From TrEMBL:
This is Regulatory LuxR family protein. One of its GO terms (biological process) is regulation of DNA-templated transcription. It comes from Streptomyces capillispiralis. The keyword Cell inner membrane does not apply. Keywords: ATP-binding, Nucleotide-binding. Residues 792-858 form the HTH luxR-type domain. It comes from the Bacteria. The keyword Nucleotide-binding applies. Residues 776-789 have a biased composition (Basic and acidic residues).
């Protein structure tokens, strides 16, 4: 049998042959002219047959013409370097009929295989999908080149444990590939070598005609040169009559080795060639014009390329191109103004770029800039600061300055006014937001510009809907989803995602999901990357509210990793992580997610997120029995909410703020807060806040002598939450109603059953802390006939139910005193349970308990 292992340089032939030889077991290794084996199988392995001299090839042909019994031969070779193409043993290659011949071709690796290699070398935590994709693109999937790039990455100065950047251009060409490429280039006769440099300059597969034109080789000389490059294996055929290098790194090696003047000549020819195409690939033309020193032509091509990319909905790429042009050096004033305005426009629909921010700030500070140009750039700088950068206060200051600069320019003026109308920031009241949107609507109508009218219409929906105004719903249907203008579609996608966000805070969860599905899909189609990410963040809040908690923490962490350098975008996910941690009793994590260095600032961040976070912090302080701290947080948060004037955003704050105020002994203020909350919801479409109002009234009644009324309020709140649906909040208020019923001494059967159902609901959600509190209440109120008989049950080495309960809370990070307060036990009893849990699980710390409990059967 003969196995032909065929593969281009670096595809892994030697590794495969080594594995085959190792698997051969007892087979005797032999040589082409060695003596035959007395008995048993023989294996002959010959690597790099393309390098074998003629006499060695002759001996191999002779051996294979009449091979001995039980003989196997493996030949590996590079097909591109065979003396006679396709003939592994030279021109006289022939195989007898009795010989079984199998060819195994090693092809370039696919993206998934490159990703596996990268993970094996770097570790999953350091290998991002972008890094693996860049490795595949630059290497062409050649296994050896991938391995060499990974070695260069590991040798770099990146901190241990940190994800590696996907920008691999800084690594250069690996020396092994450099030598191979330049050796093959040198094998091309000098008079034909310009076609190799032409392919390197074009840097993508090209036709023979284009290669000849860029190389300056007319007529048959171009074809002769290409044939010589193919024979030397420096270029290869890519199909469809196109030729080029196996990988971009190989092309880079040739460009780097060429002289500057030679490169300039070919870049100038390449730019002229591409500029004659229809449509003109302006982005590539810009590369060539810049490389040949044509500054004026380069700037023109950059501007045309950015317009092309904008029209195609690829604002992120357009922004990168413009950012690079403006950051590279002096640009003539008029061109700089045009490019900066276009960059600002692209940046507001893309993702974060610190470099864009730096460029725009520098340009806005130029005293020679005309006021209207400065105002237009300042407008988009303000939007970039508010959204992608998360600096709402500075962003709104820039927007206000832009209004002053843009007098008499209705299109950008309407956009600036409309942006100032967005209600999320704490610096303006809701009444001010409404006044801005009304002014923006008037100016947009006067402008006659359909894109700015779509932008203002989208923001008008956001303003009215967040305020709970029912008039907003019909306006959503009027947004121009099917416009021929990509700008209108981008603004509509943003409006739909923002409307979905408003619907979450109001309590319309099915509507929010429908708006998200439509908005995210339209954002993806129209290139509105920031709106798409906004929608994905909102979806996490919908899942939290509606009890879809399985895997939610992991989804939030992934979103934070993806969007963490954009604080405003990541704030939804961080908030949800904090709320989940609170329900599990992971109180240190709760504080980190809600108030840590990466969290949104409660005084300057989005008001609905600040109000929700403050509600959780008040509840946490109450759990710690820090009444003064809880009351102080409640008062500060309530002041922020009052200043904003959107009371629907108080749904997650009001019950806890009123309870903290009551427990601090200030019943009149708590009553006034409840009345203020109710008045703020009058005539508003805010079902979640209405359910919270009933809850708040229940808290007030419970602490002011109305226990019977409290239970009724809690039951009405629970019913409202179930209808939304909000299962976690329904269980919290159902449990509160049951506790009040038990305190009244009424028939305990239904109340105990309700508590048992709540404990089950909390368990299903993973709300460990709430489940433990509820089971403790059940034990306290269990009828004496149902209590456990005297004597301790024997659980042996298995955790008892109480030990498991205590262990879960200890693993979550709660102290013995906190666990004791939650479960109505003494700290000493808790200490004993923790000690037994550590002993039975065989671990030595509370942190290890969590893993041990997760691995336990059942």
């Amino acid at each position: 049998m003969l196995l032909l292992v065929e593969g281009a340089a670096g595809t892994g032939k030697s590794r495969l042959v080594g594995r085959l030889a190792a698997a051969a077991g007892s087979a005797r290794r032999t040589a082409p002219d060695g003596p035959p084996a007395a008995d048993g199988p023989e294996l002959l392995v010959v690597e790099d047959v393309h390098r074998a001299p003629a006499d060695d090839l002759a001996r191999l042909r002779a051996l294979l013409a009449d091979p001995p019994a039980h003989f196997a031969c493996v030949l590996s070779y590079r097909p591109e370097e065979l003396t006679a193409p396709g003939l592994v043993l030279g021109p006289d290659t022939d195989f007898p009929a009795a010989l079984t011949v199998v060819r195994h071709v090693l092809r370039p690796l696919g993206p998934a295989e490159v990703h596996r290699m990268a993970v094996a070398a770097l570790g999953a935590d350091r290998c991002t999908p972008g890094l693996a994709a860049a490795l595949h693109r630059l290497s062409g999937g050649v296994a050896q080149t991938v391995a060499d790039l990974l070695d260069l990455l590991l040798a770099g100065p990146v901190a241990a444990g940190q994800p590696l950047p996907a920008d691999l251009g800084r690594l250069g060409t690996p020396p092994r590939l450099d030598v191979l490429t330049l050796r093959r280039t040198a094998a091309v006769p000098e008079e034909h070598r310009s076609v190799v440099l032409a392919a390197a300059v074009l840097d993508e597969p090209a036709t023979s005609r284009d290669l000849a034109a860029v190389a300056g080789l007319p007529g048959p000389s171009g074809a002769d040169a290409l044939s010589a490059a193919l024979r030397a294996a420096v270029l290869e055929e890519h199909g469809d009559g196109r030729y080029g290098f196996r990988s971009p790194l190989a092309a880079a090696a040739v460009r780097r080795a060429a002289t500057g003047p030679a490169r300039e000549v070919l870049h100038r020819r390449a730019g002229r060639l591409l500029a004659r195409r229809q449509p003109v690939p302006w982005e590539r033309v810009a590369v060539h014009r810049r490389a040949c020193g044509d500054e004026r032509g380069w700037l023109h091509a950059v501007e045309r390329a950015a317009q092309q990319l904008e029209d195609a909905g690829e604002q992120q790429r357009a922004a990168g191109l413009l950012e690079s042009a403006l950051a590279t050096g002096p640009v003539p004033e008029q061109a700089r103004s045009r490019l900066a305005r276009r960059l600002a426009r692209c940046a507001v629909v893309g993702l974060r770029s610190d470099e864009t921010l730096k460029v725009l700030r520098h340009i806005v500070a130029d005293p020679g800039l005309p006021p209207d140009v400065r105002g237009e750039i300042r407008l988009d700088l303000g939007l970039l600061l508010c959204n992608q950068m998360g600096d709402v206060m500075e962003g709104r200051d820039e927007l206000a300055r832009a209004v002053d600069d843009l007098a008499g320019r209705p299109v950008p003026l309407a956009r600036a006014m409309s942006a100032l109308a967005m209600p999320y920031g704490p610096d303006a009241s809701f009444a001010e937001n409404v006044a801005w949107i009304e002014r923006a609507v008037t100016v947009a109508e006067e402008s006659g510009d359909p894109v700015v009218q779509a932008a203002v219409a989208a923001n008008r929906v956001s303003v009215l809907l967040n305020g709970g105004d029912p008039a907003a719903w019909p306006l959503i249907e009027r947004l121009p989803r099917d416009s021929d203008l990509v700008g209108c579609r981008q603004q509509t996608s943003r409006g739909l995602c923002n409307a979905a966000d408003a619907a979450v805070w109001l309590g319309h969860y099915d509507t929010s999901r429908a708006l998200l599905a439509e908005g995210v899909e339209l954002a993806a189609r129209s290139g509105a990357a920031y709106a798409e990410q906004t929608g994905r963040g909102c979806a996490l809040v919908v899942d939290w509210a509606t009890g879809r908690w399985t895997g939610l923490a992991e989804r939030c962490r992934a979103f934070v990793d993806e969007s963490g350098d954009m604080p405003y975008l990541a704030s939804d996910a961080r908030m949800v992580l904090g709320l989940l941690a609170l329900a599990r009793g992971e109180w240190a994590d709760t504080l980190d997610h809600l108030t840590g260095p990466d969290a949104a600032d409660l005084d300057t961040g989005p008001v609905p997120i600040s109000a929700t976070a403050s509600g959780a912090l008040v509840r946490l302080a109450l759990a710690h029995d820090d009444i003064a701290g809880a009351a102080a947080e409640a008062a500060t948060a309530w002041k922020r909410l009052r200043a904003k004037g959107i009371w629907a955003w108080g749904a997650e704050l009001a019950p806890w703020a009123v309870e903290a105020t009551l427990r601090a002994g200030d019943a009149p203020t708590a009553a006034a807060m409840t009345d203020e909350f109710a008045a703020g919801l009058d005539s508003r479409d805010a079902p979640s806040a209405e359910a919270a109002l009933e809850w708040t009234r229940g808290v007030l009644a419970e602490h002011t002598g109305g226990a019977d009324r409290a239970a009724a309020h809690y039951e009405r709140s629970a019913a409202a939450y179930r209808a939304l649906p909000r299962p976690y909040h329904a269980a919290l208020t159902t449990a509160a109603a049951a506790r009040r019923t038990l305190a009244l001494g009424a028939d305990s059967g239904p109340a105990l059953a309700a508590l048992a159902d709540c404990a089950t609901a909390f368990d299903a959600l993973g709300a460990t802390w709430d489940a433990a509190r509820t089971r403790a209440d059940l034990r306290d109120h269990r009828p004496s006939g149902e209590r456990r008989p005297p004597g301790r049950p024997r659980y042996g080495d298995v955790l008892s139910p109480r030990e498991e309960e205590v262990a879960e809370l200890a693993a979550a990070g709660m102290s013995n005193r906190e666990i004791a307060a939650t479960l109505h036990l003494s700290p000493r009893t808790v200490e004993q349970h923790v000690a037994r849990a550590l002993q039975k699980t065989g671990v030595h710390s509370r942190q290890q308990l969590g893993r041990a409990l997760g691995a336990a059967p059942g």
